[in-house]
Structure formats: structure tokens, C-alpha cells
Specification:
Blueprint lengths: L9 H15 L1 E2 L2 E2 L10 E3 L2 E3 L3 E3 L8 H9 L4 E3 L18 E2 L4 E3 L8 H22 L6 E6 L3 H5 L1 H11 L5 H12 L9 H6 L7 E5 L6 H13 L4 E6 L6 H10 L9 H6 L3 H18 L3 E5 L3 E4 L9 E5 L4 H15 L4 E4 L8 H6 L5 E3 L10 H10 L9 H13 L30 H4 L6 E6 L2 E7 L8 H4 L7 H4 L2 E3 L2 H5 L5 E6 L4 E6 L2 E6 L7 H13 L15
Parallel strand pairs: 5-16, 6-9, 9-10, 10-11, 11-12, 12-15, 18-19, 19-20
Antiparallel strand pairs: 1-2, 3-4, 7-8, 8-14, 13-14, 17-18, 20-21, 21-22
Helix pairs in contact: 2-3, 3-5, 8-11, 12-15
């Protein structure tokens, strides 16, 4: 196994998406949400937006299929995962890196891909969503919002500058030309998309950006970056602020009152972070500057909160907490800024939004609303559909400080949560019975994986969960939600994209050597053999399953269905 993801080529994604949609009416395993009500669209930062809601910058906006899944589930606003100058092999992320069994925890903060690879994933998602929207008869009112960090020198580097410019106009890139070519070659996969439709897809992927500020980033650095993004790069800009704006005493009291007394805070983070009065003054200056540049400026609330590590939940000395623990903090930061600024600046939201509060947030004029931790729970992307349904029919409007104050007060008055300190799933304690590789009891491992690295597969009267090695970064979230104490990314039958990947893993499964000849490498019952599909050894039922996957679903295996240069 490797904890490095290998993005799927565009044509492989195209085949998977539209073959599955035609067969099952789902997209990467996600049921399609109801179509857009085009009358509900609003204008935001110069673009149409059908619903001001979607995934936050995080694990659900890193790979192309993640973003497409979110769209299929009803999302229309996408805060893409943060890119920074330290990328790819330069960026070390300890694994496991996510645990969402209770509140959310993570130790990763930006894309694990190179900046160039991240751009390609976002471009592929943009193109595929346009195709899906045409097929579904949906509005094209969706927005991709970039996220960058974490210092001005890095953002001005040629690496990040190239990313910003190609996101603003991808027409001159190799991936854009390839997507047009491959889509035209595979028009038979599509029912409503014409060649003209393909050629009309706009290459102007994004002209807006959210600045992600690391804890401790100086106030003048934040202001200089935001100014640069608006003035020099002509980007509508939002600055993401931190919960530490509330001060240590307030945050400690709010967390304890909500049942999170076990979260240990670092007081130094509160003194080194941007202070509330500094933030208000800076926001006023940036708002005025934005008007002079012809740009729109806003504030995103909030980033995650650093807490000290405990109990081996995740590696490292500290974690970032999100989800339910963040809600009373974020809504109170939002209300406090609303009181100080009124409707001077647009406020958007991310911090513990879920089915219980998302409609109230929109009614209070706080939008777009983005979520992450809720999508890491059982239900996964389907939780987006449930939340989106609560937002339909609510017209986004200006900030309502009275409603905001009520929500903030309610978040502190609610009875203490019966929260307990979470415990990390331990792979050493997992059940090793023979059913672990075919278990398909609850669907959790499929739903909680943001990358779709675990997929459901129906074979005859039975269902199986299969693992796709190339899409897995060993985040560990699936293990937290397995009621059988399995570790799905280690225990499930695995499809490998290369023989080398199979050889470097202990998982049972297959890697294709020659698709045309049916040659493959198979590991079953601890034995690794090179064989043809008709001579696979091992358990008879699993033999048939693997053959079926190979023959009926080649897009899961074949990365070069029609590679560039085969014309």
C-alpha cells in the first residue's frame, strides 16, 4: 500500500461517470440530487450560483471525482483544496490524517498533490460537471473558488502564479485540449451533449480566491496578500479568519459548556493570531481597497482550531478540530463581526454546519455555506443532498444581525453534549475472519471515503465492497466507522493500477498486465500468481467476481482506455 494518491486520467473518469450513470443512475456511487430550480439562482462575485452551498476546502475538493460527487449530491459552490508552494513530495503528511467519528480532526491542511496536478484535477472536475449538468438539464450556475496559502512570497512564486493564471483561463493548457479531444471521441457515452456543447465549455474556471491564513500569520502579511490578489491578480478575494478571534477565555468556556472539556488549547495560538480589533480595521481597509480595484471582498468564517494531541488519535503534537465542536465558536465569531461591521462586508460560513442549522444560517444572510466534517460521517456525500434540500426555496439575502445574534446565543445555551474523548481505531485489533474482504454490511467504508477509494459492487444477488488502491491516501477515516473492526483499505479486495503497487502491498486483489490478453497478477489466499482471467486460482466465488470486474467494468482498471496518441 502507498499513502500517495494517483489521480485517474480524464478519459477513465469520463467512462466511469457516464457508464455508471447509464447503468445505475448514480455517479461514483452517489445518487443524483433533484434538478436545479433555475429561478432560485443568485449572482455572486459576478457569476450565477444556483445554490450557495457545497464542500469546503478539504478532502472532498482534492480529486476530480470528489468534486463531481459533491455536484451530483446537490452542491453548487466548491471551495477547492488549498494549494501552496510546498507541494507534492515536498509536503509530508503523517497518516492516518483524518478522524471524524465524533467531531472532526485532521493533520493535513493543503493539497497532497503537486500544484500542477491539483490544477489538472480541478480542470477535469470543471469539465465533467459541465457535461453532467447538460445531461441532467441542470443550470450551469456553479462556482469554483480557489484557496491559496500561506505567505506572500509563496503566492507570488511562479508555481502559484501559474496556477492562478491557468485557473483564470485554462484554454492554453494541455489538459484542456485533451479533455475536448477525448470527449469528442467518446460522445457515444453521452445522450444530450453535442460536439458544439463540448467546444462551448468555458475555460474560465475561477476568478475568485479564499486566502487560508495559518495560525500565527501576521496581520500585515494577511492584508498584503489580499491586496495583491485583488490588485495584481484581479481576483475576487475572501480572507478566512480563525476562531481565535474570540479570545482564549471565551473559546475555553464555550467548548467546556458544549461538552468538549477534553480539548486542550494552546494559549500561545490566541496571542500570536490576528486579534479582533486588528481584523475589523483590516477588513474595513480591504473592503475600501476592493472597490477601487473593481473587485469584491469578503470574509470566510472560520478556519479550523488547533488543539493539543492526546491518546494517539492522530500522529503529531497537535490536531485541527472541526465539525460540531467548531459550531458555537464559528457562529459567535460571525455574530461578533456582524455587530462590528453590519452589512459592510459579505460573510460566508464554514464551521459545524449540518442539517440542524444550515437553513438558519442562510436565513441570517451568511453564504455561501461550506461543509467538510459532515461529509466524513456515514452517508457521506448523501448528507450534502439532505442539507441542500433544506436550503431550497430560501432566498439568500444580506446579513441579518438580529438572527445572527439569536443563533450565537442559542449555541451557548444548549445543554452540554454527552461528548467523550474519541478513541482511534486500532488496526491491530481488527477481526481477521474470512469475511473481511467481502463484507458489505453497512456501506460505511464506501460513504465516508471522500476519494471513492472504496466502491460498492453488485454481483448476482450479492454485494461487495472493493478497494481502489490508486485513489487511497490512507487517511484512516473508513476504519473509524467499520462496525466489524476491519480496516477497509487493508482488508478489502483491492484493484491495483500497477503490478508494482500490488507487489508493495499485502492486500488481496489484482493488477492487470495486459487488458487485451486478459493477463493479470493476482494475490488470493496469500498466494501471488501471474495468470489469465480464465485461470484465476482461489475461492470460486471470488474468481468470478474478479473476472466480472475486469470484463464488465474496465474503467475501474484500465487507465488508458483511449490514451493520447492512439488516434
Amino acid at each position: 500500500m502507498s499513502d500517495k494518491m494517483h489521480p485517474m486520467p480524464y478519459e477513465q473518469l469520463l467512462h466511469w461517470l457516464f457508464t455508471e450513470k447509464k447503468k445505475a443512475g448514480t455517479v461514483f456511487g452517489v445518487p443524483l440530487a433533484p434538478p436545479d430550480d433555475k429561478a432560485e439562482a443568485v449572482m455572486y462575485q459576478g457569476r450565477r450560483l444556483s445554490l450557495p452551498f457545497g464542500p469546503a476546502a478539504g478532502p472532498h475538493t482534492q480529486l476530480a471525482q470528489n468534486i463531481v460527487c459533491a455536484y451530483a449530491a446537490g452542491a453548487r459552490y466548491f471551495e477547492l483544496k488549498t494549494v501552496q508552494i510546498i507541494d507534492g513530495a515536498l509536503l509530508h503528511v503523517d497518516k492516518p490524517c483524518i478522524s471524524a467519528k465524533q467531531e472532526g480532526y485532521n493533520v493535513e491542511w493543503s493539497s497532497e498533490l503537486t500544484v500542477a496536478a491539483a490544477f489538472e484535477e480541478y480542470a477535469k472536475a470543471w469539465f465533467l460537471i459541465h457535461l453532467l449538468a447538460i445531461e441532467q438539464g441542470d443550470d450551469d450556475g456553479f462556482i469554483f473558488n480557489m484557496s491559496v496559502g500561506y505567505d506572500l512570497n509563496g503566492i507570488r512564486s511562479s508555481k502559484i502564479d501559474g496556477y492562478l493564471e491557468t485557473m483564470k483561463d485554462a484554454s492554453g493548457t494541455a489538459i484542456w485540449r485533451e479533455m475536448i479531444l477525448r470527449t469528442l471521441h467518446n460522445l457515444d457515452l453521452l445522450e444530450k451533449v453535442s460536439a458544439d456543447d463540448v467546444k462551448r465549455i468555458s475555460p474560465l474556471i475561477s476568478d475568485s480566491v479564499t486566502l487560508s491564513t495559518m495560525h500565527g500569520c501576521p496581520a500585515d502579511e494577511i492584508e498584503n496578500i489580499a491586496t495583491y490578489l485583488m490588485r495584481d491578480k484581479a481576483l475576487h478575494t475572501s480572507v478566512k479568519c480563525n476562531p481565535t478571534l474570540l479570545g482564549y477565555d471565551f473559546v475555553r468556556s464555550a467548548l467546556t459548556g458544549a461538552g468538549y472539556d477534553y480539548l486542550q488549547l494552546d494559549e500561545a495560538a490566541f496571542t500570536s493570531d490576528l486579534q479582533f480589533d486588528q481584523a475589523v480595521a483590516m477588513i474595513r481597509r480591504l473592503k475600501e481597497a476592493a472597490a477601487g480595484y473593481g473587485m469584491q471582498f469578503g470574509v470566510k468564517l472560520t478556519n479550523t482550531l488547533p488543539v493539543k494531541s492526546y491518546g494517539g488519535l492522530l500522529p503529531g503534537d497537535s490536531y485541527y478540530v472541526s465539525g460540531s465542536a467548531l459550531y458555537p465558536l464559528t457562529i459567535n465569531v460571525t455574530a461578533k463581526l456582524g455587530q462590528a461591521l453590519g452589512d459592510l462586508v459579505h460573510l460566508s460560513y464554514s464551521g459545524g454546519a449540518d442539517e440542524s442549522n444550515v437553513a438558519d444560517l442562510l436565513r441570517a444572510g451568511i453564504w455561501p455555506i461550506t461543509v467538510s466534517t459532515r461529509l466524513l460521517k456515514p452517508g457521506g456525500y448523501k448528507n450534502l443532498t439532505a442539507m441542500a434540500s433544506r436550503l431550497r426555496g430560501i432566498k439568500p439575502g444580506p446579513i441579518d444581525t438580529v438572527k445572527l445574534d439569536v443563533l450565537a446565543a442559542q449555541s451557548l445555551e444548549q445543554p452540554a453534549k454527552p461528548a467523550t474523548q474519541p478513541v482511534r481505531a486500532n488496526p491491530d485489533n481488527r477481526n481477521h475472519d474470512d469475511k473481511r474482504r467481502t463484507c458489505y454490511i453497512c456501506n460505511n467504508c464506501i460513504d465516508v471515503c471522500p476519494n471513492r477509494a472504496n466502491i460498492g459492487f453488485v454481483f448476482g444477488a450479492d454485494k461487495y465492497a472493493l478497494h481502489l488502491d490508486a485513489l487511497c491516501n490512507e487517511c484512516g477515516n473508513c476504519a473509524d466507522f467499520c462496525p466489524m473492526s476491519y480496516v477497509p483499505y487493508l482488508d478489502k479486495l483491492t484493484i491495483f493500477d500497477t503490478v508494482e503497487a500490488l507487489q508493495n502491498s499485502g492486500n488481496e486483489g489484482l493488477a492487470v498486465l495486459d487488458r487485451a490478453q486478459g493477463d493479470m497478477m493476482v494475490r488470493m489466499d496469500g498466494q501471488t500468481t501471474q495468470t489469465k482471467d480464465e485461470t484465476i486460482t482461489g475461492q470460486e466465488r471470488l474468481d468470478s467476481l474478479l473476472k466480472n470486474v475486469l470484463n464488465e467494468n474496465p474503467y475501474l482498471i484500465d487507465a488508458n482506455i483511449h490514451a493520447p496518441g492512439k488516434d
